[in-house]
């Protein structure tokens, strides 16, 4: 019964995010809006953490299974991905280096 409540709260935030995304004048991912809404509700303690903890843990535990359909769908675009592989690798590595430098700089500023 607890998992049903956990999933209901998470699903309600997702559906609220979809409703907000539908009325926005620009495209924005509804799932991100739902996560921000859930974060806000948890931060303000309108929703207690134990109301979503077990359901969230179950989803996280089985997250790898949720990526299987996406990976299977990408197999249909192997030719497109192989053409842009260089750009993808450069973007990923430069993003990684940029994030590491930014986090290192921020940590140095916070410590000193």
From TrEMBL:
Membrane topology term reads: Multi-pass membrane protein
Species this protein is from: Oceanimonas doudoroffii
InterPro entries in the cross-refs = LrgA/CidA (IPR005538)
UniProt-recorded name of the protein = Murein hydrolase regulator LrgA
GO MF annotations in UniProt: hydrolase activity
Transmembrane region(s): 31-51, 58-78, 84-107
The UniProt record lists the keyword Ribosomal protein: no
Recorded coiled-coil stretches? none
Q: Which residues does UniProt assign to the signal peptide?
A: none
Task: Kindly state which keywords UniProt assigns to this record, in alphabetical order.
Answer: Cell membrane, Hydrolase, Membrane, Transmembrane, Transmembrane helix
Q: What subcellular compartments does it reside in?
A: Cell membrane
Per its UniProt record, what Pfam families does this chain match?
LrgA (PF03788)
- What cellular component terms from Gene Ontology apply here? plasma membrane
């Amino acid at each position: 019964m607890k998992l049903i409540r956990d999933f209901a709260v998470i699903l309600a935030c997702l559906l609220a995010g979809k409703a907000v995304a539908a009325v926005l004048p620009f495209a924005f991912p509804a799932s991100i809006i739902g996560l921000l809404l859930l974060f806000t509700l948890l931060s303000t303690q309108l929703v207690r953490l134990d109301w979503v903890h077990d359901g969230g843990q179950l989803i996280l535990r089985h997250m790898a299974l949720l990526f299987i359909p996406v990976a299977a769908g990408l197999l249909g675009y192997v030719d497109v991905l192989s053409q842009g592989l260089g750009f993808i690798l450069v973007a990923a590595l430069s993003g990684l280096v940029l994030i590491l430098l930014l986090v290192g700089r921020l940590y140095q500023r916070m410590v000193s």
